Amino acid sequence: MTGYQIKEMGKRYLMQNYAQLPLVIARGEGVRVWDDQGKCYLDFVGGIAVNSVGHCHPRVVAAIRQQSEQLIHCSNLYWFEPPVVLAQELAALSGLDRVFFCNSGAEANEAAIKLARKYAYEQCNKENPEIIAFTQSFHGRTLGTLAATGQEKFSRGFTPLPEGFRHVHFNDVAELKRAVGPQTAAVLVEPLQGEGGVYPATQEMMGALAELRDEKGILLMFDEVQCGLGRTGKAFAYEHYGVRPDILTLAKALGGGLPIGAALAREGVAQVFQPGTHGTTFGGNPVVCAAARAVLQVLQDEGLVEQAAQTGNYMKASLEALQNKYPFIKEVRGMGLLLGMELDRPGQEMVALCQERGLLVNCTAERVIRFMPPLITSREEVDEAVGILDEALRVFQERG
């Protein structure tokens, strides 16, 4: 099937809820992908922070192949090995105690919200508990996670949303402290907001969250769906702040490209999930869990978390050099290999200019060029990407 046929069939048969670029990806390997015409691109979108160990890593492919020959699916009515071992590895890595597996980041956040509400109801006698979340946040597209998300554009047209959420301005400690009341059950936060424009939490705010937990007994829920598992140069973004959550959500990078989500919790919180309180048909799928175990092994064996920190610092410095060159670049921010370059004007044209020259990037929050390359990305590949970006910025500037 030709690329043209794929696009036309997609326009005919798929719901048109994505604004696809005029590009048909045929295959990927490492940090690069190829379109249907054989043109090669540096992929600095990385499946939106999914392809942390690159496209089609041999060890992930081998794990998928081996597990698919043994057991592809089994109901959670029974025990089977892959999710059990993966849960043990995630618990050891995070310092939390128990894991619930699902299929996406939104589902992981739904599980976290339900867990926090159930805990508040059973352990704190709060019948109408409230969860505090933040402006600019993004937690998913289910009705529950839309209610938690602090960007009205995502929920427009889908009201009424579930109640029980209050939003405060990100990094505003005074407003956060005022918002915590008798019915507050938990605070849900991304240590590094991705979709909202690549904004890191301040140390002051994360410290305030820890103090509020100690003083008020609220739960801390950290959404690391996009920023977790090495993306920021630490295994988890919360490690930058020295504050461990009560509940942690993961997805994207965990499956190496296969769909998986996970909600982790400390023992005292996790125990409120008893048989029948929550579940999912496909959560803990054997093949996906085998792929996730391979991802964790690659991250460790190849030193990719440390590499993300070093390469991320190098790339950030390179982007800051471009900022000094082009006055319409307002700010470069982020951590590790989740970086954003904010422009003083809409940036979607930059995405097209980069694509034409062989670099895939993403624009979020209208004006922020977001970079999420695989953690295997080398300095040489950063140099190549920044060279393309420089040329695209020059054209962008000339066009005004």
How would you describe the overall organization of this protein?
The strands form four sheets. A seven-stranded mixed beta sheet has the order 4-12-11-10-7-5-6, with helices on both faces. A four-stranded mixed beta sheet has the order 1-2-3-15. Strands 13-14-17-16 form a four-stranded antiparallel beta sheet, with helices on one face. The mean pLDDT is 97. It is globular and about 60 Å long. It folds into three domains: 1-38, no CATH class; 59-301, 3-Layer(aba) Sandwich (Aspartate Aminotransferase, domain 2), CATH 3.40.640; 303-400, Aspartate Aminotransferase, domain 1, CATH 3.90.1150. The relative contact order is 0.16. The longest helix has 22 residues, at 304-325. The chain starts with a helix and ends with a helix. The protein is built from 14 helices and 17 strands. It is of the alpha/beta class and 400 residues long. The chain has helices spanning 3-13, 46-49, 58-68, 81-94, 105-123, 143-148, 152-155, 173-179, 203-216, 267-270, 286-301, 304-325, 348-356, 379-399, and strands at 25-29, 32-35, 40-43, 98-102, 130-134, 165-168, 184-189, 192-193, 199-200, 219-223, 247-250, 261-265, 329-335, 338-343, 359-360, 362-364, 368-371. α4 runs parallel beside α11 and α12 (304-325) packs parallel to α14 (379-399).
